[in-house]
UniProtKB/TrEMBL annotation:
<dbReference type="Pfam" id="PF01556">
    <property type="entry name" value="DnaJ_C"/>
</dbReference>
<protein>
    <submittedName>
        <fullName>DnaJ-class molecular chaperone</fullName>
    </submittedName>
</protein>
<dbReference type="Pfam" id="PF00226">
    <property type="entry name" value="DnaJ"/>
</dbReference>
<dbReference type="InterPro" id="IPR018253">
    <property type="entry name" value="DnaJ_domain_CS"/>
</dbReference>
<dbReference type="InterPro" id="IPR002939">
    <property type="entry name" value="DnaJ_C"/>
</dbReference>
<feature type="domain" description="J">
    <location>
        <begin position="3"/>
        <end position="68"/>
    </location>
</feature>
<feature type="region of interest" description="Disordered">
    <location>
        <begin position="108"/>
        <end position="156"/>
    </location>
</feature>
<dbReference type="InterPro" id="IPR001623">
    <property type="entry name" value="DnaJ_domain"/>
</dbReference>
<feature type="compositionally biased region" description="Gly residues">
    <location>
        <begin position="119"/>
        <end position="130"/>
    </location>
</feature>
<dbReference type="InterPro" id="IPR036869">
    <property type="entry name" value="J_dom_sf"/>
</dbReference>
<keyword id="KW-0143">Chaperone</keyword>
<dbReference type="InterPro" id="IPR008971">
    <property type="entry name" value="HSP40/DnaJ_pept-bd"/>
</dbReference>
Length: 324
């Protein structure tokens, strides 16, 4: 996978605002729904989301800059002193892991899949606090081909696969169950938790490509994307819509029913409201990074009667004369 900075097209000194702007611009350009004829659209979008996940998180970004994790967010293998680095406890004694074993785990939430480095200090085959052959194999990528009880080797695991799953704004906000069709023909129901954001990445263990040599299948990773909406226009975590108001109502004031992701609400339009005025409904937008929601921005559009009204025209003439 490419360097996250190259994927987003930003420099290594880019601040959070630059990274956010670059992600929004590219997400709109690379979204699978906007590139239906590109067979690699899902892969490009998944790569963008992974890069953004690393660079938007200060901890992960620091780990990547220091070379502790790779472009996929996976921990890099530590170096042995005999292979170009590492440290020794004494003459001939390797102590590159400080007596601990590094494992990789995942946690899931509205922000997507998180990889967490966890250390365990149990005694392995190397003695108290030491690392067993199996632990070392996991860290260096050959753990899936560990030596079996009979002295043989386990067949290699199949390849992982990436899938983009479009959801509506309502489904992301309120939660839903979605059926996903995998490239291998399987149909799987996935639960979308309420408050799920675009870019959330889920791991389906054992649902990837089968092994060509009879081993276990790989994993499938599902990345959430937002489907276009017929009424609302997205602007970050905020949503925009336009509501028509008649000329008399804009002058005298009225109440209008406005759709939101959680149902219709009543919006009070004060007297003498001009066309183009924007009202803000707080917390009625998309899930945001703080666990809350963005806002709904409602723009007023004044509409005239469909049929000509001579009395209205006479009144407008009078108002024009007065203004002059």
């Amino acid at each position: 996978m490419r360097d996250p900075y190259d994927v987003l097209g930003v420099s290594r000194t880019a601040d959070e605002a630059e990274i956010k702007r670059a992600y929004r611009r590219l997400a709109k350009k690379l979204h699978p729904d906007a590139n239906a004829n590109d067979p690699k659209a899902q892969d490009k979008f998944a790569e963008l989301n992974t890069a953004h996940e690393i660079l938007e998180d200060k901890t992960k970004r620091g780990q990547f800059d220091r070379g502790e994790i790779d472009a996929e967010g996976k921990p890099r293998a530590p170096e042995f002193s005999g292979f170009g680095g590492g440290r020794r406890a004494g003459p001939g004694g390797f102590n590159g892991f400080d007596g601990d074993t590094i494992f990789e785990s995942f946690s899931f939430g509205p922000e997507g899949a998180r990889r967490n480095a966890r250390r365990g200090g149990g005694g392995g085959s190397g003695g108290p606090g030491g690392s067993s052959f199996d632990d070392l194999g996991d860290m260096f990528g050959f753990g899936r081909q560990r030596r079996g009880a009979g002295g043989g080797s386990t067949p290699p695991i199949g390849a992982d696969m990436e899938i983009s799953l479009p959801v509506t704004f309502e489904e992301a906000t309120q939660g839903a169950s979605k059926r996903v069709g995998l490239p291998n023909g399987k149909q799987i129901d996935i639960k979308i938790a309420a408050g799920t954001r675009e870019g959330h990445r889920m791991r389906l263990k054992g649902q990837g490509e089968p092994s060509a040599m009879g081993g276990a299948p790989g994993d499938a990773f599902v990345t959430i994307s937002y489907a276009p909406h017929a009424t609302f226009e997205r602007e970050g975590d905020d949503l925009r819509q336009t509501v028509d108001v008649s000329l008399p109502d804009s002058v005298l004031g009225t109440k209008v029913r406005v759709p939101t992701l959680s149902g219709t609400v009543e919006l009070n339009i004060p007297a003498w409201t001009s066309g183009g005025r924007v009202f803000r409904l707080r917390g009625k937008g998309l899930p945001n990074a703080t666990g809350g929601h963005g806002d709904m921005l409602v723009r007023i559009n004044i509409v005239l009667p469909k049929a000509k009204d001579s009395e209205l025209e006479a009144l407008m003439q009078k108002l024009r004369s007065t203004a002059l």
